[in-house]
Amino acid sequence: MKNYDFVVLGTGIAGLSFALKAARHGSVALITKRLRDDANTSYAQGGVACVTSGEDSFDLHVRDTLTAGAGLCNEAVVRTIVTEGPARIQELMQLGVHFDERDLKSGESELDLGREGGHSKRRILHARDATGREIEQSLIQAAQAAPNIELLENHMAVDLITTGKLGFASEDRCVGVYVLNESTGAVETFRTDRLILATGGCGKVYLYTTNPNVATGDGVAMAWRAGVTIANMEFIQFHPTCLFHPARPSFLISEAVRGEGGRLVDEKGREFMGKYHPLGALAPRDIVARAIDAEMKRTGAPCVYLDISHKPAEFVRDRFPMIHESCLELGIDITRQPIPVVPAAHYQCGGVLTDANGATSLRGLYAIGEVACTGLHGANRLASNSLLEAVVVAHRAIEHVLVDIPFNGHPPHELALPEWVSGDAHDVDEMVVIYHNWDEIRRLMWDYVAIVRTDKRLQRASTRLRNLLREIQEFYWNFKLTTEILELRNLATTAALIVDCALLRKESRGLHYTLDYPETDDRHWARNTEIHWL
Ligand code: SIN
């Protein structure tokens, strides 16, 4: 059994930010199932929404967030995150994160603020079009240099250990986690009183997603199995503009392209967003994604196009170097041609229910970043609010946990936990079964539980997922654990939670749109969808 003061699962912006602060107070195991920078953060293009200019205000940022959230944001949480943002951004900059600046006539410079859908002001801090990579690299460097942090790659969490599961009569609390060490194949026991889920989202639940392979809903699934409250999983954000190309199926074309004047057009070059919303291509994401879906269904075209070729080529190359290069490798010159795009699953707005400190319904367990549902996003996330949420809540979480679970607290650090027992489990003989189930889940979620839903499709998905979960549970017990089996189990669990929440909500709101209840029903549904195990 390994003992740590803090165990952090996940090495995106949320996990790294928390670990760096926690390391000032005690020992930290920083655990990631693949390599250290295999996190959604590394792929974030747009940037961090934060009020830094005199022309902007906290009130405007709060208002834009509440509008996008379609009546489900927690206004107090929104205000906290928005107003504490600038201090956290300063810290990122002190750690070496460089956001783009622009030169002023006076010879001085200021932050170059980008614009994205739903924002009434320019307020997106960015590093060209690779902001996440810039943040991730700086935080990883700092974590590697921090003496108290042990960074464990290729370690995948299996399940949380709670006093309830161990049969203790005391208050239920999180006391550790079982972790599969992929290089030895052994499941190790990590003992801690302070466990932080920073495992990101679940885009891989869907056939088409902007997310990397690691986004399999691990944190939500583990928290669910531990009896922790989960909320609002029906609100999955589909990014309107994922590149439509077989060689790069998950490549995001940042919303910032529309923010800088990119036009959404059909195959004949006709703009269509004006028909759907007064803000056109810069309407909130749910509206743009649904409009594209409707246009594709109406015309039978496999994609629509995002066109920025009317802007000076030098500007496009300088502002979007990564997108420009990546598209050019595929034969698309974005300075001259429109980019073929489709909507794809992008962000999980619900998750493990927390307060503004990241505290969950299970004492000792915190959730930060995309895995969490703090109340910031409500029924639809405002673009670029997520990196801000991660840094602000990571800061609040460390302050909260030090008071709530002091080092001299109870239960004692020495509490002995049972070791993992593998029994007579044998090696998986047919990987094809795992891959088949994986594909089936992603396809059925795309066909039945994506941008436009109905009760009938949701019921169909629910029945099939229940069968798959039973089958997957058999692998779990009969075969030696592998990352693939664990991811499949988590993927299926998370998919079922999305469907369960979607079936509960008998209205359309934000990202949940159903043909059976097309109106918003404020009388009955202006509230979270909260679910628990049993
Ligand atoms: C983008 O660059 O469009 C993604 C930004 C975000 O999802 O917040």
Features:
534 residues, Flavocytochrome C3, Chain A, domain 1, alpha/beta, binds succinic acid, 4-stranded mixed sheet, Methane Monooxygenase Hydroxylase, Chain G, domain 1, 36% helix, FAD/NAD(P)-binding domain, 5-stranded parallel sheet, 15 helices, 3 domains, 21 strands
Structure at a glance:
This protein is of the alpha/beta class and 534 residues long. Helices cover 36% and strands 16% of the residues.
CATH superfamily of the largest domain: FAD/NAD(P)-binding domain
What can be said about the biggest beta sheet?
5 strands, parallel
Low-confidence stretches: none
Q: What is the topology, as strand order, of the major beta sheet?
A: 8-3-2-12-19
Strand content: 15-25%
Number of domains: 3
CATH class descriptor of the largest domain: Alpha Beta
Annotation, overall tally of beta strands: 21
Per CATH, which architecture of the largest domain? 3-Layer(bba) Sandwich
CATH level-3 fold name of the largest domain: FAD/NAD(P)-binding domain
Morphology call:
globular
Class from helix and strand fractions: alpha/beta
